């Protein structure tokens, strides 16, 4: 008796993760960026000081509207290289205070990267730390990442403080390693493992 002929071995679908929105923290809502956010977002994304260390120049309103309709419209992860950008809204007032992004850098290495920018008028309230902590939960518990990094310009001390408060450790300093906005910049790399993040949360 011969064994039955086998069909093709099924190829597993790529990992997919569609977060449930909004994501709620103590004081904030993280949600998909909407066209109605354009005017409020333009206020800080057109501010040269606010965008000094992010990879785009001060944006016109039309630029913000175009990015909301394209680059910033993705709400789920289907393959490595995907990024999800989320608006950060203050629960008490409904005001947009900033936005955050999670990049899925590698499926094999289970690695990601976070980025964040906040309206300077909302500074000093711990909103960036609270929002990025929720983003880490999205990456570690939702997407199943093992390691998340934050790459910062060395002069961006406020962003470095956010990373350090969340338990990131500084792993590298690359002196004048990038030609960024018409000058050489020194890059800092911060990193956090999922187990480290969960352990810190448990202690809290």
TrEMBL record:
Pfam families: Acetyltransf_3. It comes from the Bacteria. One of its GO terms (molecular function) is acyltransferase activity, transferring groups other than amino-acyl groups. Residues 28-195 form the N-acetyltransferase domain. Signal peptide: none annotated. This is N-acetyltransferase domain-containing protein. It comes from Microbacterium maritypicum MF109.
């Amino acid at each position: 008796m011969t064994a039955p002929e086998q069909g093709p071995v099924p190829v597993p679908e790529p990992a997919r993760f569609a977060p449930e929105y909004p994501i709620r923290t103590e004081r904030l809502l993280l949600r998909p960026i909407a066209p109605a956010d354009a005017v409020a977002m333009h206020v800080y994304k057109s501010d040269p000081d606010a965008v000094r260390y992010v990879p785009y120049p001060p944006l016109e309103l039309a630029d913000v509207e175009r990015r909301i309709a394209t680059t910033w419209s993705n709400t789920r992860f289907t393959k490595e290289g995907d990024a999800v950008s989320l608006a950060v809204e203050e629960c008490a007032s409904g005001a947009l205070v900033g936005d955050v992004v999670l990049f899925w850098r590698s499926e094999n290495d289970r690695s990601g990267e976070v980025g964040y920018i906040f309206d300077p008028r909302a500074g000093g309230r711990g909103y960036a730390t609270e929002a990025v902590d929720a983003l880490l939960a999205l990456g570690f518990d939702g997407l199943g990442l093992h390691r998340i990094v934050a790459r910062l310009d060395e002069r961006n001390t406020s962003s470095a403080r956010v990373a350090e408060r969340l338990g990131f450790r500084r792993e590298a300093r690359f002196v004048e390693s990038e030609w960024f906005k018409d000058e050489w910049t020194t890059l800092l790399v911060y990193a956090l493992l999922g187990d480290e993040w969960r352990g810190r949360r448990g202690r809290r």
